[in-house]
Design brief:
The complex is a heterodimer. Chain A is an alpha+beta fold. Chain A has a single domain (10-411, 453-482), classed as tRNA-splicing ligase RtcB. Chain A is 33% helix and 24% strand. In chain A, a hairpin with a 7-residue loop joins strand 15 and strand 16. Chain A is globular and about 60 Å long. Chain B is α+β, with helices and mostly antiparallel strands. Chain B has a single domain (4-145), classed as 3-Layer(bab) Sandwich (Archease, Possible Chaperone, Chain: A, domain 1), CATH 3.55.10. Chain B has two helices and seven strands. Chain B is globular, with a radius of gyration of 15 Å. The chains are: A alpha+beta, B alpha+beta. The interface between A and B is large, with 46 and 35 residues.
Chain lengths: 483, 146
């Protein structure tokens, strides 16, 4: 097997590989990559370079990890997971990602494909109208600065209080949609001005809203599916992928500058400028944590407002109510975040960058409805191929700080995708395959063609085989909205 | 001579990257600005109904270009606009301890019904970011997070 690295990569088992600390000066712990042999062979050089850079960061515990959807990122690889000692370890914006609390949300319905197909064009048009996407889009929720600070502090709960959602939704959001320690005083005016008009917007890039089908043959774990309200029989669900938009990006950019100075102050050197970091307990580290939690809560609020709009769109098209249509939230989970989490062996500051929390059965962090099955994990694939719903496991708690993959991961650059396929043609081809797409930008659509992504089934089978998450259902797209 | 730019394929698989060059600092900044403007929307589809003056001052040229490009991204979100063109002046401050940029930005509020919108660029990154100068002129490499 030829790999895109000169480093020694040792096989631990069929799905796990390890780069020993002897392979790079400064590595404090081994780097571990979850991958099938085929996926490992397809991983770009950045994965190996970056996961070993992460292994050099002060206070790192046990391993620097990369999930099978890993590819090059800023600082950490996408798919990167690392836990640090909160007392003497660091916090790094490069381990969270620019789009703080980018995440996934899945909403069920009682509708079937047979009921939705005749109205799909109308439904997608209504969703496209109610959920703005693309460059410079503004949401329907207008807030002043005082209210925006409330959003930063309260997250999804702010939305529920305003009528944008149901009280029960909070139980089915990671951390109930609100991270403690949010400190709006640490957020710049630039960030506020970028974010204040974007509540309820999707953005662009790989963000989307997708209407999907769960058929009987695509349910792998009936007990877990049933706990989530999935019965199969061509049931319709809605998936949302988006984050904190310009607000989160500005927070990350602002603190990268702060951390460049802080590293000199604290005598920290890193292998890559995008790994800029500061001791978690330092004033700079705590300021970033306070601002990052503001962005994370805003992202939870963003997805909550979008959920409200989705429910309203379905109610309008099907001349019913969201409750009557059974539009309960299945789960909402972050995949760009840093959080202090408690495990059997202590408390760790876990960074997940393009990686999803995957707590196993019995975790006190889970609501009653999921405590027996483990935490729902939502993994988005390309808009042409489909997505997966999984659950966290005990193995993840032991081996990966309760973490797993987040999506399929790109293999082709945006420019190459645009040269390979044209947006208008893709739109027609997908319609022929039964997938109706509404896109703001045809070039943006071409960039997200399925051929630009890894085969998500192979990625999912890797985490399932490794035992760090188990498959529950595959979700097939019938309608997609892109920025 | 006006500067030029080209998008780079294999630097940032999930994002966008470009290389801009010019025989003068002014030409480099013009080219890099054009690359970012064209990443957001086709300028030919953007009306000239919105104008703003921007001044940026930084201790060095690398930081000046970085902060200026990030300012464009900020304005795109904060004012929900895309750009038709920018007229720039780049010059050294007194005793060359700082570098200054003055820009007259022209564009229009975002309107998907009339504009060819492209990528909603979220920011300029420091990944592989470089501004170089040699006998033939200036060159910059920029990776945009989308």
């Amino acid at each position: 097997m030829t790999l895109h690295t000169d480093m020694q990569v040792n096989r631990i088992d069929d799905y796990l590989w390890e780069i020993p600390p002897t392979e790079k000066r400064g590595m404090l712990v081994p780097a571990r990559i979850y991958a099938s042999p085929a996926i490992l062979g397809s991983m770009d050089r950045g994965v190996f370079d970056q996961v070993t850079n992460v292994a050099c960061l002060p206070g790192i515990h046990r391993y620097a990890l990369c999930m099978p959807d890993g590819h090059w990122g800023y600082g950490f690889p996408i798919g990167g997971v690392a836990a640090f000692d909160p007392e003497d370890g660091i916090i790094s914006p490069g381990g969270v990602g620019y789009d703080i609390n980018c995440g996934m949300r899945l909403i069920r319905t009682d509708l079937s494909l047979a009921e939705v197909r005749p109205k799909l064009e109308l439904l997608m048009t209504e969703l496209f109208r109610r959920v703005p996407a693309g460059v410079g889009s503004r949401g329907f929720v207008t807030v002043n600065r005082r209210e925006f600070r409330d959003v930063m502090r309260k997250g999804a709960a702010w939305c529920i209080a305003q009528g944008y959602g149901w009280e029960e939704d909070l139980d089915r959001i990671e951390e109930r949609g609100c991270l403690g320690g949010a400190d709006p005083g640490q957020v710049t005016d630039y960030a506020i001005e970028r974010g204040i008009n974007q509540l309820g917007t999707l953005g662009s890039g790989n963000h989307y809203l997708e209407v999907q089908v769960v058929s009987d043959r695509n349910i792998f774990d009936r007990e877990a599916a049933s706990a989530m309200g999935l019965r199969g029989r061509d049931q319709i669900v809605v998936m949302v992928h988006c984050g904190s938009r310009g607000f989160g990006h500005q927070v990350a950019s602002d603190y990268l500058k702060v951390f460049e100075k802080a590293m000199r102050l604290y005598g920290i050197s890193v292998q890559d400028q995008q790994l800029a970091c500061a001791p978690f307990r330092s004033p700079e580290g705590q300021d970033y944590f306070g601002a990052m939690n503001c962005a994370a809560n805003t992202a939870f609020a963003n997805r909550q407002v979008i959920t409200h709009q989705i429910r309203e769109a379905f109610a309008a098209v099907f001349e019913s109510t969201p409750h009557a249509l059974g539009m309960h939230l299945i789960y909402d989970v972050a995949h760009n975040i840093a959080k202090v989490e408690r495990y059997e062996n202590g408390e760790w500051l876990v960074h997940r960058k393009g990686a999803t929390r995957a707590f196993g059965p019995g975790s006190p962090a889970l609501p009653d409805c999921y405590r027996a099955i483990g935490q729902p994990v939502i993994c988005g694939g390309s808009m042409e191929t489909g997505s997966y719903l999984l659950v966290g496991t005990d193995r993840a708690m032991q081996d990966t700080f309760g973490s797993t993959m987040h999506g399929s991961g790109r293999t082709m650059s945006r420019a190459q995708a645009k040269r390979t396929v044209r947006g208008e043609q893709l739109l027609r081809d997908m319609k022929q395959h039964g997938i109706l797409v509404k896109a703001v930008s045809m070039s943006g659509l071409a960039e997200e063609a399925g051929l630009a992504y890894k085969n998500i089934s192979e990625v999912v089978n890797t985490v399932d085989g490794a035992g760090i998450t188990k498959k529950v259902a595959e979700l097939k797209p019938i309608g997609n909205i892109k920025g | 001579m006006p500067g030029t730019f080209r998008f780079l394929d294999d630097i940032a698989v999930a994002d966008m990257a470009f290389e801009a060059e010019g025989d003068s600092l002014q030409a480099l900044f013009d080219a890099a600005t054009q690359a970012l403007i064209q990443s957001l929307a086709d300028p030919a589809s953007v009306a000239q109904t919105w104008r703003q003056t921007v001044d940026v001052e930084e201790p060095d040229i690398e930081t000046l270009l970085f902060e200026w490009l990030n300012r464009l991204v900020y304005l795109k979100d904060a004012q929900a606009v895309v750009f038709h063109h920018a007229t720039l002046t780049v010059q050294a401050g007194p005793d060359r301890s700082t570098w200054r940029l003055h820009a007259e930005l022209v564009g229009a509020p975002v309107d998907p019904s009339t504009q060819e919108l492209r990528s909603d660029v979220k920011g300029v990154t420091k990944h592989l970011y470089a501004v170089d100068h040699d006998a033939t002129g200036w060159k910059a490499r920029v990776v945009l997070d989308v």
